[in-house]
Amino acid sequence: MGIETRKQLHVISTGIQSVEELVKISKSIYPYIDMLHLREKQWSGKEMAVAIDRLLAAGVPLTKLCVNDRADIAFMKRVRGVQLGHQSADISLVKSAFPSLQIGASVHSLEEAQQAMENGADYLLYGNIYATSSKPGKTGVGVASLEKMVRSIPVPTIAIGGVTPDRVGEVMRTGARGVAILSGIFLSKDPLDSARSYYKEVHMEVR
C-alpha cells in the first residue's frame, strides 16, 4: 500500500495534551491534514484504542489515522497505518504480519533510510530538518541533507522538525513529499488557522 503521489501534511500529537484536547483539535483540523499520528508513549493499548474510537466518533476518518509503534492496535482498529522507530519491531516483521497497514519509518540518516526501504517501508519521516524545541540542543540536518535523501531514496520522504509555514516552500523544493508538524499545530493558539496555513503552503505550486 504505497503512499499517494499527492503532497502530504502530517500532524503528530504532542504526548502532553489530554484525550479531550486531542479529540477537540483533531475534529477541527482533520479536513486540512492527510495523516494524524498518535504518538502517545505513555498510553496503554486500551487507552490508544479508546482514543481512536473517540476520534472516529468525532468524525476523524480511520484513513487519516496512524498509530506510533503499536502495529497491533493499528491493525485491530483498522486505521490507515503505523509509524515505526528505532525501538519498534522490525519493519519486515510488521509488514508480513499486518500487510494491510501503511508503514512509515522514522529515520535520521541515509543508511537508516536505505535499510527501511529494503525492509518494506512505504514512506519515511526524516529530520529534524531545522532546530526545534522538541529536540533541544540538536541542530537541524538542513534542507541540503533532505534533498540528498530525496534524490538517493525512491521512497516518499516527509520532512519533520522545526518546519514553520514560511519554511514549507524551501522544504518542498527539495522534492520531499510533504511535512510533519507537531507543536506548530497542536500547541498553536489557533490550531485550525495553523493547519490551514500549513495546508496552503504544502499545496502551493513549488516556486
Estimated helix fraction: 25-40%
Q: Give a quick account of the main beta sheet: strands, pairing sense, barrel closure.
A: 8 strands, parallel, barrel
Number of helices: 9
CATH class: Alpha Beta
What value does the average pLDDT take? 95
Q: Look at the structure and name the CATH superfamily.
A: Aldolase class I
Q: What is the overall silhouette?
A: globular
Number of domains: 1
| Number of strand elements | 8
Low-confidence stretches: none
Q: Would you list the SSEs in sequence order as H and E?
A: EHEHEHEHEHEHEHEHH
Structure characterization notes:
It is a single chain. This protein has a single domain, classed as Alpha-Beta Barrel (TIM Barrel). Helix content is 38%, strand content 17%. The chain contains nine helices and eight strands. An eight-stranded parallel beta barrel has the order 1-2-3-4-5-6-7-8, surrounded by four helices. The radius of gyration is 16 Å and the shape is globular.
